[in-house]
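Need the bound structure for protoporphyrin IX containing FE, inputs here:
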Amino acid sequence: MRPKSFSFWFTIRRLPTILRSPLAYIIEMAQKEEAIINLGSGIIPVYLVNHPDAANQVLVTEAKKFYRGSAINSLRDFLGNGLLTSNGEQWQRQRQLVQPAFRSHAISQYARAMDVQITRYMSQWEQFLTTGSLKELNMTQDMLILAQNNILAALFDIHHHPEAQVLHNALETIQHTIISISLWEAVGTGFGTIFGKKTGNALYDLLASKQKKTYEEAKTTIQKYIRSLIAARKIDLLERHDNNRMDLFSQLIRAQQEGKMSEQQLEDEAITLFVAGFDTTGHTLSWLWYLLSRHPDIQENIRSELRTLPHDADAATLAKSSLPYLEATIHEVLRLYPVAWLSLRSPIEKVQIAGYDLPEKASLVITPYTLHRLPSYWPDPEKFDPTRFLNRDTPDVTGAYLPFSAGPHTCIGKRLALLEMKMIVARVIQKYRVEDGNHKASKPKAMITLAAHPNVHVKVSAYT
Ligand code: HEM
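Answer from helper R.:
Posting the output first, comments after.
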């Protein structure tokens, strides 16, 4: 059976929505309650995988039949061929090289480094509160910068990082541009299919050219930063013979020196780990504070649970303590706002998924955003209710839960991210009450990650 196609005019009528918000378009299409839904009206072979079993087939049980296709080319332009964008043997080799740094015993070592960053960040609150100058905090910005500092401390052994704001701004520009360029490209290709390739390319060039300049500048900012880190660390490792550095970044540099990867591969891997490591966690934390600031009862439940811990618990104690309610809250935030909202795959050859025949090279879109809202799996799906995750194993993709994806490409940083978020929430809630400071409700804005728009603002006050 072929997925149902829609008329050309059906898509044309929806172009304003597609260009304004690809997520809104996907949500609308997901209402059709079919396992595979045609998103491209036959012009572009793009399908939404709209059932957990079908997603499981693509990501897990038949993962070998799929690769990351051309739909992520614009991301590849930025990240090169790092873990998040590569395929096949190259991906497998790199994953094996990087994986040991994400095993549980390695992760627990990162707790101390991150805790230093968290404490440093929170000491600013203390200062502001003492001087009475703490009005409102932009938690979207703050969490992205804190997450940046954490990933550099944990994986790169870099503990002082004055460039955080500049890099944050550059990444935001890149995200805006990649999403809009991809959309213009899709529209251009669509027109190219109807009116000829030349028209499509001309239209794409016209629409995307202005944005490309800003994008290139932002990309250069991040690339230069990563290159400067690589150069400085090479001096430490190779000229100063600093053999004590065991962090992942230093290990990658050693692997490159031993001929296990090229200089370009090293740079791609470092940019990927840096960007994937902070942008996702930062945005999840931003949503977390958005929800907690609007649910004082849930905040209070977390605080009660934290009373089981000593106030001055060190990082290692905090990292290994079991805090089921807090952990359930983080899972529930990730259910409602799965910031890595898009996994893209393409079949290597013709394939059948959930009974539907799909052509080779078609783009398959899997989004936890819609799967996490299926009422048959998640009753009253819009309700923020951490108890959904209490007293049960965390469901996997077949239970319609996949914030970290599933199968061979499951997020390598999942454990690190969960630990980091647990530590930040615990440290804050032990001392502070967080209240809603937004003037307007935040809505998800689908860039490469799912950002809160407008940014999340909160007011904080210390418990006496
Ligand atoms: C809340 C935080 C995070 C979320 C929601 C998240 C989500 C995801 C998802 C959904 C994927 C799969 C993408 C795909 O299907 O193609 C992924 C892959 C990946 N993530 Fe994360 N991630 C998070 C944190 C992190 C952290 C802290 C790191 C640390 C470096 C990281 C590094 C990566 C890498 C390298 C991949 C590619 C894995 C591969 O294909 O082998 N992520 N992540």
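Comments: The mean pLDDT is 91. The domain at 1-63+343-371 is CATH 3.30.43 (Uridine Diphospho-n-acetylenolpyruvylglucosamine Reductase; domain 2).
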